[in-house]
Design brief:
- By secondary structure, the chain is an alpha/beta fold.
């Protein structure tokens, strides 16, 4: 039998051969229709058997807050977030926010709302430094320093005379400082070692790891656990301020002896007495009027109304 040359057409011989080959070959094992669903259920059961991790919220970082003081007008305000470009809320001047570190000899002026660190061994000569915090570890005795918050002292610090009187002072952790002059300041926080004669006007706080030696005169003292103190102490709390006298109150003069009254006081005391005596006389007069028999009310007769009362004439005398 001739084979057909047309595509998609087979003759009888080819069909018989195809059937024979199909019978000799093992049947293909096709997956059942429900097999994928079963695998999914098994997978889901295996996933459910494992402990599921609960959703948890980690650290929530709040933006930092910065309390700044404008070095041009002195206005204080708060900035939240990064200090990229900061303008004063009052004078609208753009403020420098960078920190400065000084090494060696320095003669240029610095104005910033950041921090200025004069490292140990550095010298500042004839310069004006305005910053939020000024850390002094070198010689600044010939400089003009204007911190808007506090001054931090480290090892080898030298400051201009009278600079610390109006500012809070921090003794940095790990530093060792010995002062020959009396340390006068607002508040004193000791994180390192300090040997001096200190007379702060406010609170003295010795933090853990801090040590104070020498003489201390203050109104308040706090020593935390881990802080050391070896000094002659003179802790005297400030006396409470006297209250001003209230409006309307009079002060008695010490020159007048007790018991002596002024004419105005005598008049005040005599007027009520005269009024009281006048009241007594009026009351006695009223009582006399009510008790006098001539002015008592006449008694009512028991006769019926409408009939006149007749009286018999007196008898005449016969001579």
């Amino acid at each position: 039998m001739a084979r057909s040359d047309k595509p998609g057409m087979i003759d009888g011989f080819m069909s018989v051969q195809a059937v024979r080959h199909q019978g000799d070959r093992a049947p293909d094992q096709k997956p059942a229709k429900d097999a994928p669903a079963v695998e999914k259920t098994e997978a889901s059961q295996s996933d459910s058997a494992q402990p599921q991790k609960k959703a948890s919220i980690g650290h929530t970082a709040l933006p930092s807050r910065h309390e700044l003081i404008c070095y041009s007008c002195g206005y204080a305000f708060v900035v939240t977030g990064a200090l990229n470009k900061v303008f004063c809320a009052k004078c609208r001047e753009q403020l420098e926010t960078g920190d400065h570190s000084i090494e060696g000899e320095w003669k240029q002026d610095i104005r910033t709302v950041g921090k200025v660190h004069v490292k140990q061994g550095a010298t500042v000569v004839g310069a004006t430094i305005i910053a939020t915090d000024i850390v002094i570890g070198g010689d600044c005795s010939q400089a003009k320093l204007q911190p808007t918050r506090r001054i931090e002292l480290g090892t080898g610090a030298a400051t201009p005379p009278g600079l610390l009187d109006e500012h809070p002072v921090h003794i940095r952790a790990g530093s060792r400082l010995s002062l020959t002059t009396t340390l006068r300041c607002k508040t004193l926080d000791v994180y390192g070692e300090l040997q001096a004669t200190a007379e702060p006007t406010g609170m003295v706080t010795i933090h853990p790891g801090g040590m104070f030696r020498g003489r201390l005169k203050a109104s308040h003292l706090v020593v935390h656990d881990g802080g050391g103190l070896s000094a002659d102490l003179n802790i005297t709390p400030e006396a409470p301020a006297k209250q001003a006298p209230k409006a309307g109150t009079t002060k008695t003069s010490p020159s007048k002896p007790a018991g002596v009254r002024t004419p105005a006081q005598k008049a005040k005391t005599e007027k009520p007495a005269q009024g009281a005596s006048a009241k007594k006389t009026v009351a006695s007069k009223k009582a006399k009027r009510t008790t006098s028999p001539s002015k008592t009310a006449p008694k009512r007769s028991s006769q019926p109304k409408g009939k006149k009362r007749t009286s018999k004439p007196p008898p005449r005398k016969v001579e």
